[in-house]
Design brief:
The protein is mainly alpha-helical. Helices cover 55% and strands 9% of the residues. α2 (17-24) crosses α3. The radius of gyration is 11 Å and the shape is globular. The N and C termini lie close together (11 Å).
Length: 69
């Protein structure tokens, strides 16, 4: 399973979904899906925009987690 750390990154910077949407140009719905970890796909341009906004690497935003644990 892929875990998305967007909620943690947003919390650290005290950003709301609308703040991230405005800063990245991404649709609020996409950000909400990632925030709630219910997204089933994401565009590479969206990953790039989020990594640039949070000044992080892809591995800081997403993590592969073992489902058996």
């Amino acid at each position: 399973m892929i875990k998305c750390h967007l909620s943690r990154l947003m919390g650290e910077q005290k950003l709301k979904v609308i703040d991230v949407a405005r800063a990245t140009g991404l649709h609020r719905n996409m950000i909400t899906l990632l925030y709630n970890e219910t997204a089933t796909r994401i565009d590479l341009a969206a990953i790039e925009a989020l990594c640039k906004l949070f000044n992080c690497k892809v591995g800081d935003l997403f993590e592969l987690v073992d489902e058996q644990g």
